[in-house]
Amino acid sequence: MSKMPITIEALLVIDAIDRRQSFAKAAEEMNKATSALSYIMQKLEENLGITLFERQGRRSVLTAAGKVVLEEGRQILQASSQLVEKARETSTGWETHLKIAIESTGNYKVFFTVLQDFLKEHPSIEVEVTECVLSGGWDALEHNQIDLVVGAPGPIPLLKGFRSVPMAKAEMVPVIAAHHEYAEFAEDGKSMLAVLSKIRRIVIPDTSKLNVTRSAGLTNGYQKLYVQNMDQKMAALRAGLGVGHLPRKRIVEDLANGTLLELKLDPANDLESFLAWKISNKGKALRALTQLLEQADWSDG
């Protein structure tokens, strides 16, 4: 491989000169002699065959070509900084990437608040978040598609090598839109049961691909409308497309203003949930994040 005409040092010099608007101030910032910076820029211009800076009074200003080198160079500097940080973390047992699945009924507000705190401490770690439903999170964890599942529903699969921590239960409320044709029976459990088989169920299908899928809530009905996530389910229920269970904490305002009506059906459906990961996963990033998640108040928000 031929020698590259642009070095990291040269890019740092260009960046400093542009920010400080003079060779002298850039040299002071970099703890170098002004002549040293001038030499680095002179050699770079010779190697590239272009002019990078021009004088405007006492200021050193980038030429059009210099601006291109600066803009692209800053991306290279950022990438090189991230590379160094990742290499250091990897050498000490820290993962550079975490894959997390959060159950559709999970408390997103608390999760992302905790994640923000985690990433402040470990900004170079990439995090990939996906949504799962019922057995889907356990399935993905078992087959190493994710490192952590947040809000996975019980019961916990046995003999799979999982470590799990109980989280706050999610109170699932059966609801119907106030303008639905059968909304008049919402307060009368007996009458609602009599017509329930005629009402379409709004369902998020189990995301498990390899294991036996599960169902929960009002799944036995005349028709089903399958949606992909909780936001879609909430929108479908508000639109009056059918009935279904929603986490009470997500629809406090809807229930208060009468957009959605709670069905008086028994028994109550409290969804037990867990924070879970594989015992064999000894990554330091995973452990640091799970410790923060374990300390969080999942009953909040």
Structure at a glance:
InterPro entries: LysR_HTH_N, LysR_subst-bd, WH-like_DNA-bd_sf, WH_DNA-bd_sf. The protein contains 10 helices and 13 strands.
Structural description of this entry:
With 301 residues, the protein is an alpha/beta fold. The protein folds into three domains: 8-91, Arc Repressor Mutant, subunit A (Orthogonal Bundle); 97-168 and 273-295, 3-Layer(aba) Sandwich (D-Maltodextrin-Binding Protein, domain 2); 171-268, D-Maltodextrin-Binding Protein, domain 2 (3-Layer(aba) Sandwich), CATH 3.40.190.290. It has ten helices and 13 strands. The strands form four sheets. A five-stranded mixed sheet has the order 4-3-5-13-6, with helices on both faces. Strands 7, 10, 11 and 12 form a four-stranded antiparallel sheet that branches. The longest helix has 28 residues, at 64-91. It starts with 7 loop residues before the first helix and ends in a 6-residue tail after the last helix.
